[in-house]
TrEMBL record:
Designated gene of the protein: queG
Catalysis performed (reactions): epoxyqueuosine(34) in tRNA + AH2 = queuosine(34) in tRNA + A + H2O
Enzymatic class: oxidoreductase
Domain of life: Bacteria
Gene3D superfamilies, per database record: 3.30.70.20
UniProt-annotated binding residues for tRNA: 230
Protein known as: Epoxyqueuosine reductase
Length: 378
């Protein structure tokens, strides 16, 4: 009887994995709910305050590592992977051109939260048609779930030193989603770690946010600073943002495993024309109505217009000097909020320092100030 039951569960698991792939998930893995080995790491990270202003990271305590407490009755977690790398993106080129605005790859298309959650809901409903006793709940980066720990245990990939999941055949340009279920399905095995001695992601991080392998101090991370941080961006980090106005991809761009990244099958993840490859000045010229219109259905909308302007002002401050940039910043200053005005003033100061001939004028002022203090016969 036990053997028959095992055979039925194995057959159901194969059906579920095939079903997931038919719904557009490139990979489906299954794990149990024991994530206890991650609890100490999570608590130490929280104790050091590395979550910054993201209070929701601490509010749920260890529920993040205890799926059965988050959703009582959960026996297994189905982890899914969906690739989002668009064709012919040219992102590295955009990052090097300081006049262009750099937006993280994942945010240039449709909001993945909505798309993947809808697919997961449909996934659960179709499994339910096969097994009426199924109870399920989908999650997509929207609740206290250790998604990378789950993906690692479910065999989707290993956790890289930048804390993201890496897959040998697909790199790391993919989204993760989870389906909590109450069925005792057979589980998958974790894959071997593949980072080895590589430290490229630690070395490339513009702000040194990856403070040690597998530990990211969110307070230093450009993704956090441009998305989660609601107040002023600390001045020490502003020059390091460069032209990154929403998120950062540096640790993934440099990862050698991303040479194997797969192009997405989802047209919704392709870059939107109004966001990709635009100059900082073009985006800074948007009013709030245009911002809301052009970011409809995009994850960018959730930061709000004020933080959008704040981020772009920093980008303009880091751009090569241009009269147009100075004029645009000055024109926007009068009607800007206090938060945005602070960053505009910083940007104007940066532009003034970069103005052609400024260094010569500063040197001349220094010489004159020194001369004033010298004896007449010196």
């Amino acid at each position: 009887m036990a053997e028959l039951c095992d055979k039925l569960l194995a057959d159901l698991t194969e059906h579920i994995k095939n079903l997931g792939k038919s719904l557009g998930f490139q990979q489906v893995g299954i794990c149990d709910v024991d994530l206890s080995r991650h609890e100490a790491h999570l608590q130490a990270w929280l104790d050091k305050g590395m979550h910054g202003e993201m209070q929701y990271m601490a509010e749920h305590g260890m529920k993040r590592a205890r799926p059965h407490e988050l959703v009582p009755g959960t026996l297994r977690v189905i982890s899914v992977r969906m690739d989002y790398l668009p064709p012919d993106a040219g992102f590295a080129r955009n990052l090097k051109n300081r006049q262009l605005a750099y937006i993280s790859r994942y945010a240039l298309g449709r909001d993945y939260h909505k798309l993947i959650r809808q697919r997961l809901k449909k996934f659960g409903e179709q499994i339910q048609q096969k097994v009426s006793e199924l109870a399920f709940r989908p999650f997509v980066d929207s609740a206290p779930v250790l998604e990378h720990a789950v993906a690692e245990k479910a065999g989707i990939g290993w956790t890289g030193k930048h804390s993201l999941t890496i897959n040998r055949e697909a790199g790391s340009w993919f989204f993760l989603g989870e389906l909590f279920i109450n069925l005792p399905l057979p589980i998958d095995s974790p894959v071997a770690e593949g980072c080895g001695s590589c430290t490229a992601c630690l070395t490339i991080c513009p702000t040194g946010a990856i403070v040690e392998p597998y530990v990211v101090d969110a307070r230093r991370c450009i993704s956090y600073l441009t998305i989660e941080q609601k107040g002023p961006i600390p001045e020490e980090f502003r020059p390091l943002l460069g032209n990154r106005i929403y998120g950062c991809d540096d640790c993934q761009l440099v990862c050698p495993w991303n040479r194997y990244a797969q192009i997405t099958d989802e047209a919704d993840f392709h870059p939107r024309q109004q966001l990709h490859g635009k100059t900082l000045l073009e985006l800074f010229a948007w009013d709030e109505q245009k911002f809301l219109k052009n970011t409809e259905g995009s994850p960018i909308r959730r930061i709000g217009f004020e933080c959008w302007q704040r981020n772009i002002a920093v980008g303009l401050g880091n751009a090569p000097y241009a009269d147009e940039i100075v004029a645009s910043l000055q024109a926007a200053r009068e009607s800007a909020s206090e938060l945005v005005r602070e960053h505009i003033d910083w940007a104007l100061d940066q532009q003034a320092q970069r103005k052609p001939g400024q260094a010569d004028r500063q040197t001349l002022r220094l010489i004159r100030s020194v001369e004033k203090g010298l004896p007449r016969d010196a």
